[in-house]
Amino acid sequence: MKKIRLGMLRCDTHGYYFGAMMQKCDPLLLQENNYVVHHYFSNIFSPEKLTMPFVPGFEITCACDVDPEKAKAFSETFLGIPAVCGKPEEMFKYIDAVFIADCDGNGSDHLHFAEPFLKQGIPVFIDKPFAAKLTDALSIVKLAEKHGVPIFNSSILSQAPAAEKFKRRFDEIITTPSWPVPEDIPEPRIGLGVVKGVGGAFSQELAGKTLNGGIEERMAYIIHGVALALNLFGTGVEWVEAMGSLPLEYLHLHLENGIEVMIMNTSVEIFPETCSFYASAYSKFGAIHSPPIGDPEFIYGAEQIIKLLKTMIKTGKPPVPYHEIIEHIAVIEAGQLAQQTGRRVYLKEYISGV
């Protein structure tokens, strides 16, 4: 069966992370060129043995990065198969789709990178965050719709099976208990959700920055907490409120389904640097708390993203509605306004005013 020819644009940690699940690579060169990915993907006793899941059907045919040496090292790691391209436009002839990787960026260059591929009719995966600004997010979607090209964006926290497993436990606290319950009491439901994010991790140096200044460095991490919250408790954010000394340190979402969600993007002084997320759900009959959803669990979220990407390329249909992708960015941008002004911001009004 013919493989999907995929271009890797930006050869950072996420490029290696997703790439190694789609194409065979040299384990020891992976260890040399990206120790972090190798650490999570390899046998603890045998560095030459990789243990992550693998999604067949892809061939990474080219690699491009603003730093040519990074693209060269990436190509060498993947057995020299990807052609090294000096600029994105050189990738067109080699690919059926492009993967715009972004491990810790704020998405400010995603519109710039995606636009030429969409105009060429090439499907695009855009790593999180989808964009740094809502206007950019809307522009990307308009380009995709104008040229009839599918796009896909997702945080691993939107796809992690560990999150889905926790969601299935909601029945424990929304099922009517065995003891007698008065008939006039409404049906039990989740009323409150709490997500411990990692927006404050890696940001000790940001403590003295203003609410406006710190968001750019934190965007890559804050987006995950928003993604997990909407994954667990539902999309359709009606309004947002925010507070704290760091940008979006405490973000309150009110969902159209009636659930209140608090996302805590706390500082490293409170939670030592870690990528583990935690979630809690509350109803009138009790509460449940998730185990850590962290680096070991992220691997299987990435696997699911790749499977969805494969389906998108084959069917030409985006696996996630565009309005849900836009909602993640709108929540963050509206949250910033809420924190700066000290008032509640309604999402529909904010989006319509952009």
Brief synopsis:
By secondary structure, this protein is α/β, with parallel strands linked by helices. The protein is built from twelve helices and 13 strands. The protein is 38% helix and 17% strand.
Secondary-structure topology with pairs:
Elements: E1 4-9, H1 13-19, H2 27-33, H3 35-41, E2 58-64, H4 68-77, E3 83-85, E4 97-100, H5 110-119, E5 124-126, H6 134-147, E6 151-153, H7 161-168, H8 171-174, E7 192-196, H9 215-233, E8 237-243, E9 250-255, E10 260-264, E11 278-283, E12 286-289, H10 295-315, H11 322-341, E13 345-346, H12 347-352
Parallel strand pairs: 1-2, 1-4, 2-3, 4-5, 5-6, 7-10
Antiparallel strand pairs: 7-11, 8-9, 8-13, 9-10, 11-12
Main attributes of the structure:
354 residues; alpha/beta; 7-stranded mixed β-sheet; 6-stranded parallel β-sheet; 12 helices; globular
Helix residue percentage: 25-40%
Rg computed from alpha carbons, rounded to a whole number of angstroms: 21 Å
Give the number of DSSP strands: 13
**What letter string, H or E per element, gives the SSE order?**
EHHHEHEEHEHEHHEHEEEEEHHEH
Rounded mean pLDDT score: 92
Spatial sequence of strands, sheet with the most strands: 12-11-7-10-9-8-13
Low-confidence stretches: none
Please report the distance between the alpha carbons of the first and last residues: 45 Å
- Largest sheet, described in full? 7 strands, mixed
User: Looking at the structure, what is the overall shape?
Assistant: globular
- Beta content comes to 15-25%
SS-derived structural category: alpha/beta
Please give the count of helices: 12
